[in-house]
Specification:
Cyt_P450, 9 strands, alpha+beta, three-stranded antiparallel beta sheet, about 500 residues, four-stranded mixed beta sheet, Cyt_P450_sf
């Protein structure tokens, strides 16, 4: 018995020694760093206390106010938080070829893992080149009528809410609206989520976002320690997703076979790329063909990113407007003036005539960035500017978007909602790369213009007719779902709405 105890003690001491050696990586290389004390590294507050990842990174960011770089540990993986905006820009744009990959699983275990976010190297470059035309200005212009159709349904839905006078969850309603937009613009289908909140489309959306328990831990591990999932051949994606998206793809294709007019939605553009490749029968230089797996994966990506991040921004914006009625009133004056000048018609051109709305959305994205941070992998040895330290290939870096957006050096009193931060003069006065809601450079969000048009359109329609106010159910401040790497309200965002007369 004593021998077994001695072996346990020896193994524990050995593990502790090896752990301390691992956690000495940054200090050994002369990089200012944290000193974690458990195998969970600097993310122990997330795993143990449920603190969301961007807040953990922000605590570290603020603890090293005079450093450009801070060495941390995601579990036992060395990671480098980049605090300096100039260096952030260098990584994202100037020296992008050294940092073009993200932290991801290299071994594909699921047909949904061939989309832009997870691909690396030449495969990512080839894929992005093919998909970029899907979001051209002309394509986006053609999708505005589909967005307007969904906006009309939302208008009817809110009109019913005004009759009861009860508060409602704007996050839930916004999610159902943006999901309907994705149904129309992506698939050419009417998901009808606003009228049927228990539809299969909405339930799948909830499953993708409201992860709990082991599923949430797996998603977190995929981000910070993907090799662990790769080694055990575990997928963090819920099992029902693959059959759902497979069926959705087949359904969309079948509808097109029986139509005389060719559709102009995103799905058709993806199918056209696949069909053209098959016709050309030419090998792809990037090593990946635009086959059904690729279409399926990107459909999954657009479905997830297209409804949730946009819905979050819309609901956060309405929340802040309810808390700041003076901002809401000023914005309503602008949107009504633009609608009156354009006979109530919203086009690609008229949506650009709303500078204050642009400022309000920008401030919302600053305070609640949809991507709270982004990461990169060093793919080639890289000597850091102004330092003697050379990054080894495989070193991971974190660009802390939430922290930069809440840094008092760039945004005084960062918790305050102040659209005036985004006047042309104030934008010009700030250093570059201090505003990154969609990232920047070659790997910035490919659908950012689509999302901004959608947000501008629906906020214009809503604020011209409705007033949003807080209710007894409104949480101030918002409580967040735990153990997440995004800012997702734990209990929704509850507001009251009142329909206005034309002259109110």
């Amino acid at each position: 018995m004593w021998l077994f105890g001695a072996l346990i003690a020896f193994a524990s001491i050995l593990a502790l020694v090896l752990l301390r050696k691992r956690f000495n990586y940054w200090r050994k290389n002369g990089v200012p760093s944290t000193s974690p004390w458990t195998i969970l590294g600097d993310l122990w507050p997330t795993f143990v206390k449920g603190r969301i990842v961007p807040f953990v990174y922000n605590d570290i960011y603020k603890a090293f106010p005079n450093e450009k770089l801070v060495g941390i540990y995601d579990l036992i993986n060395p990671n480098l938080i980049v605090r300096d905006p100039e260096l952030v820009g260098t990584i994202m744009i100037k020296d992008f070829r050294h940092f073009q990959d993200r932290v991801t699983i290299k071994k594909r275990r699921n047909r949904l893992e061939y989309h832009l976010v997870v691909l690396c190297g030449e495969q990512w470059k080839s894929m992005r080149t093919k998909i970029v035309p899907t979001f051209s200005a002309n394509k986006l212009k053609s999708m505005i009528p589909m967005m307007e159709y969904c906006a009309q349904i939302l208008d009817s839905h809110l009109r019913e809410k005004t009759l009861t006078g009860e508060s409602f969850d704007v996050k839930e309603v916004s999610s159902r609206f943006t999901l309907d937009v994705i149904g129309c613009c992506m698939f050419g289908l009417h998901f009808n989520s606003l009228n049927d909140p228990n539809s299969e489309y909405r339930n799948i959306g909830k499953m993708m976002i409201n992860v709990r328990g082991i599923q949430g831990i797996l998603q977190l591990l995929r981000l910070v320690f993907p090799k662990l999932l790769e080694y055990f051949n575990i997928s963090e994606l819920p099992a029902p997703l693959l059959p759902f998206f497979t069926k959705l793809l087949k359904q969309s294709e079948e509808l097109r076979k029986h139509e005389s007019t060719k559709r102009n939605d995103m799905m058709q553009l993806l199918l056209d790329i696949r069909d053209q490749e098959e016709l050309d029968n030419a090998p792809d230089e990037g090593g990946i063909s635009f086959n059904d797996n690729v279409i399926l994966s990107n459909v999954f990506l657009f479905y997830l990113a297209g409804f949730e991040t946009t819905a979050g921004t819309i609901s956060f914006c309405l929340y802040e407007l309810a808390l700041n009625p003076d901002v809401q009133s000023k914005l309503r004056q602008e949107v009504r003036a633009v609608l009156q000048a354009n006979s109530a018609e919203l086009t690609y051109k008229t949506l650009k005539q709303l500078p204050y709305l642009e400022m309000v959305i920008s401030e919302t994205l600053r305070k609640y960035p949809p991507g709270t941070f982004t990461n990169r992998i060093c793919t080639e040895a890289y000597k850091l500017p102004g330092s003697s330290f050379t990054l080894e290939p495989g070193t991971r870096l974190t660009l802390p978007i939430y922290s930069i957006h809440h840094d008092e050096k760039f945004y005084p009193n960062p918790k305050k909602f102040d659209p005036e931060r985004f006047t042309p003069e104030n934008i010009e006065s700030r250093p570059p790369f201090t505003y990154l809601p969609f990232g920047d450079g070659p790997r910035m969000c490919i659908a950012s213009r689509f999302a901004q048009i959608e947000m501008k359109l629906i906020l214009t329609r809503l604020l011209s007719k409705y007033e949003f106010t807080t209710s007894p159910k409104t949480e101030i401040p918002i409580q967040w779902q735990s153990r997440r790497f995004q800012m997702i309200p734990k209990n929704g965002i509850h507001l009251q709405v009142k329909r206005l007369e034309e002259n109110e």
